[in-house]
Design brief:
The structure is a homodimer. Chain A has helices spanning 2-6, 45-62, 102-109, 120-130, 191-195, 197-210, 227-235, 239-263, 279-292, 313-324, and strands at 9-15, 19-26, 31-38, 69-75, 79-80, 85-87, 99-100, 115-118, 140-145, 149-155, 158-159, 267-271, 302-305. Chain A is an alpha/beta fold. The radius of gyration of chain A is 20 Å and the shape is globular. Chain A binds chain B through residues 138-139, 153, 155-156, 158, 160-170, 172-177, 185-187, 254, 257-259, 261-266, 292, 294-297, 300-301, and chain B through 138-139, 153, 155-156, 158, 160-170, 172-177, 185-187, 254, 257-259, 261-266, 292, 294-297, 300-301.
Chain lengths: 325, 325
Amino acid sequence: MEQQSQKPYVIGLDLGGTNSVFGIVDARGEIKATTAIKTGSYAKAEDYVAACVEALQPIIDTVGGMDTIKAMGIGAPNANYYSGTIEMAPNLPWAHDCVVPLGKLFSERLDNIPVGLTNDANAAALGEMVYGVARGMKNFIVITLGTGVGSGIVVNGQLLYGSDGFAGELGHVIMRRENGRLCGCGRRGCLEAYCSATGVARTARELLATTQRPSLLREMNPEDITSLDVSIAAGKGDELANEIYQFTGHMLGEACADFAAFSSPEAFIFFGGMTKAGDLIMKPIEQAYNELVMPIFKGKAKFLVSGLDGAGAAVLGASAIGWEM
Amino acid sequence: MEQQSQKPYVIGLDLGGTNSVFGIVDARGEIKATTAIKTGSYAKAEDYVAACVEALQPIIDTVGGMDTIKAMGIGAPNANYYSGTIEMAPNLPWAHDCVVPLGKLFSERLDNIPVGLTNDANAAALGEMVYGVARGMKNFIVITLGTGVGSGIVVNGQLLYGSDGFAGELGHVIMRRENGRLCGCGRRGCLEAYCSATGVARTARELLATTQRPSLLREMNPEDITSLDVSIAAGKGDELANEIYQFTGHMLGEACADFAAFSSPEAFIFFGGMTKAGDLIMKPIEQAYNELVMPIFKGKAKFLVSGLDGAGAAVLGASAIGWEM
């Protein structure tokens, strides 16, 4: 036990559909070494893991070998913390139609160190707790604003996994119960359909198509508009673009008001590309929240942007699972 | 420690606006002795506690004195678990405009045993976990259907109190964002405004006023209709009354589908007078849930009615806090 707790590093793996990015991380969140491979070039999970371990070996050597590694954490789509598996992940050729015991496969090839998996939003929440703006907090919610809307919920200092490991899907609470937008999950009106980066672009296209209002965004092919374009236009004073972020932030604040009734968190922490819009998105969130939340919760919660460094954030989040093992 | 864990009883206090009901309860949930006093006959909290202890003394003696009592649990409105206080409770004359350290006041007069407080819905959740249908469960949600809609959320085997002790207000998530009914909390569209016993009566009055449809309920003065009357009419085959329960159950199922995205519970457990309507309310809840929930959660959650005995349920729930201390 004594020796175990002195091992100074964990491995973090940010397993995405395109790239698998590794980092060896110390307890302060410093990334000591990194490497990466392509995720999709393998038909079998065993081959993928073998390629990962081969890529890892040199960076493990640079920090002093496997004796310095306490554990490994993996942030991955469709990852189940309880079982250590990836289940039916549509974007992973070696896991799209099966259940892969990825934790076990890595552990077997890495001196049987503990290996933990969870989805990327949960990994982000652990990352904030271990290295980021949630240090010392016991009740908070991380909301990831990317292609989708994800969430990691911490209560009593523990990540909320629920009965099956799949708790914390706040991108899929229903915000519009009548005539809601179709969501990738097959239902209508989910938060994600409006407040993800793709949702923001969709709001832009809808407003451009249904109104005659002038906007810098009219100079673009509507299909090419991204949330970044909306943010840039808003930065130039474009009224319509500003309104799109107002609408998006307002709905996020509305959603957070419901989340408060659930777990009364100390803070809502926003993570991902869209947070680069800064006050443009954060101000309307906080404003709508305090306007709409139950009186008892008014003014209590903090609204924060992730404290993890952009480039390494996902690897840091993944590595944080390692410290929890 | 050894001795403490052998004390066989806890005191439970169901502190309501009208009555304060006490029970001495063993670990299997048997109520060994009970007593009660009127809650509101005291201007000062100290006097209320003195009267409680006076009423308790004889029943404590019947089970063998204070040496047999491990702890006390109190289920009360506006109770804060973290601080052991009752805060600004509008229906309690000795606590309506102040913060009363009720746990401390009882402990001082009862040989310094630990005393815990929480609201009645949280107490019900603990009661289900300790004595009821949630024994062995680590993730479940109790929803109380009474004058209001309350909830107690258990995650990882622990009650969810949140950052301030006030988590678990699921009666106040917003179900209708446009033209929602006014709720007692001052906002519009809350679950409670539709699915509490008073909400059901309100639905009945609305349907009677806005349609010409025949119903047994037309024989009553609309202002006198209660959820029990609707249930009785439905039992007699009244179509309108059936539709009211369909509507109510559907909205509860819709709400539970969102709650699943939050904590993915193993079961939803319904507690309180309205559950007496049985399948009339439970069937539409489960049906709407499985129709509307994210595919990943479909068919997983159980829908149960409280396993605690009606008359003693609230006292049992309160006593369960005692075992947690």
